[in-house]
Amino acid sequence: MARFSTRAILAATRTPEVTQTPSAVPIYQSAAFSASDADELGAVLTGTQPGYAYSRIDNPTTAALGAAIADLEGAEAGLSFATGMAAIHAAILSTVKAGQTIVATQALYGTTRDLLVRVLGNLGIATVFVDPTDLAAVDAALAASGAPVLYVETISNPTIVVSDISALAAAAHRHSALLLVDNTFASPYACRPIEHGADLVMHSATKYLSGHADALAGVVVGRRELVDALRPILVDAGGALAPLAAYLVLRGLPTLSLRMERHSETATDLAAWLQGQDNVERVYYPGLPFDAGHAVARRQLDVFGGMLAFELRGGRDAGRAFLDAMRIAERTASLGAVRTITTHPPSTTHRQLDSAALAAAGIAPGLLRCSVGLEDVQDLREDFERGLDAARGAEGRPA
Ligand SMILES: Cc1ncc(COP(=O)(O)O)c(C=O)c1O
User: Fold this and answer.
1) Does 279 share its domain with 221?
2) Tens digits of per-residue pLDDT, 35-65?
3) Which member of 58, 189, 192, 207 is catalytic?
4) What is the pLDDT averaged over residues 211-218?
5) Domains in the chain: how many in total?
6) CA torsion angle for 83, 254, 61, 206 (degrees, to 10)?
7) Which of 54, 275, 323, 343 has the highest local Cβ count within 10 Å?
8) Is residue 182 annotated as part of the catalytic site, yes or no?
9) 3-state class of 251 per DSSP?
10) Which atom of ligand 1 lies nearest, measured to the CA of 206?
11) Is the shortest distance between the CB of 109 and ligand 1 below 6 Å?
């Protein structure tokens, strides 16, 4: 009989066999999976036999998440990553080589811009930024650069610009480029870019897919051969998703439709209400009839989503006062959660920029971005009323 330490290890790692199907995908919290013999391990590691060997390469829980999002997006295959940025990094690197150029939307999440400029720029990959709503400019940039990739966001962060995916896919394909779409703000409930011609779709699953602000995760979905090309980057760069985080995102998915309906309904209400307030200069929400993205949104989105932005009269001080007055909405940088989140980029994420630099980035000093949560709409209106009152009090101070 084996001795105590050996028995403890063997006893604790004896995995129960389960022939019935669990109601929830189990958390396979295991770094490795052992094979019955050397041949099986060799075959699994070299991919000639399906199975699991090491969780950086593949894990049943994280694989279940990739497959689930592929299903919701109408894609052939999906792969999960540790974060949205790891997913975006892998998607871009799988489609572009040193010496080539990417054409990307200028209405872009800041960290994705940093990835393109700071990280990929250093590797000899250049990026040309274009207005995604100016199709002639997109076409010209693709023609001039010979770019293999056009990169856009369905609804952009933070300025809520809606990209016309069908038109952009046609432009990309005319120039033999692939269209990569970050669908984080819309979620597959509101929009499935592959139906409109996109080639690869990325998500920060940290946001609406998880929905509860308790996990970091990312996913890429698309045609099988394109997703297969991502796996070496996942395996060699090591941005693998943790099984617990995959489980938490899977737990969010069954309520995605209910959450997105409620996020959209409340955001539509708040956007219309904000538009009527004396110290709100402009509201950006694709559900508003006069929004620049409304016509495309009506064609492309099933609901208008929970993200809105608005500009306050009174500049930076007014924006900061609004943010500080919030009692229900959280002051943080994320989005897509059950709780409403407001950010004032000029006094937080972009505080180092002076007025001229802010203007160049397309960000008004009084711009607030709001991820509308699932609270009662009346409570949110009262919170926003408190914010608007505080903003009125701060008006007139030097910017
Ligand atoms: C549109 C968009 N894409 C990607 C990301 C990055 O996601 P993650 O924080 O999961 O890496 C974010 C994060 O805020 C985002 O807003």
Assistant:
1) no
2) 999 999 999 999 999 999 999 999 999 999 9
3) 207
4) 98
5) 2
6) 10
7) 343
8) yes
9) helix
10) 10
11) yes
Across the chain, what does the average pLDDT equal?
Answer: 96
Question: pLDDT tens-digit profile of 3-23?
Answer: 999 999 999 999 999 999 999
Share of the chain above pLDDT 70, in %: 99
Residues 260 and 243 in one domain: no
Q: What is the pTM of this model?
A: 0.96
Which pLDDT value is given to residue 346?
Answer: 86
Of the three residues 234, 254, 274, the one that is the final residue of a domain is: 254
What is d(CA 101, CA 120) in angstroms, rounded to the nearest whole number? 10
User: Do 235 and 299 share a domain, yes or no?
Assistant: no
Active site residue: 28, 109, 151, 284, which one? 109
CATH of residue 353's domain is 3.90.1150.10
Nearest CA to ligand 1 atom 12: 204
Q: Is the CB of 193 under 6 A from ligand 1?
A: no
> Is there an atom of ligand 1 within 6 Å of 157 CB?
yes
- CATH code of the domain containing 66: 3.40.640.10
Instruction: Report the separation in Å between the CA atom of 43 and the middle of ligand 1, taken as the mean of its atom positions.
Output: 36
Q: Say whether both 228 and 83 belong to one domain.
A: yes
Kindly provide the residue ranges of all beta strands, DSSP E only, lying in the chain, ordered along the sequence. 77-81, 101-105, 126-130, 149-153, 178-182, 200-204, 218-222, 280-284, 307-312, 330-331, 341-343, 367-371
Q: 182: which strand partners? A: 153, 202
Cβ proximity of 280 and 387 under 8 Å: no
Give 16's DSSP letter: P
Which of 85, 156, 162 has most ligand 1 atoms within 8 Å of its beta carbon, as the pocket-test mutant? 85
Domain that holds residue 42: 38-254
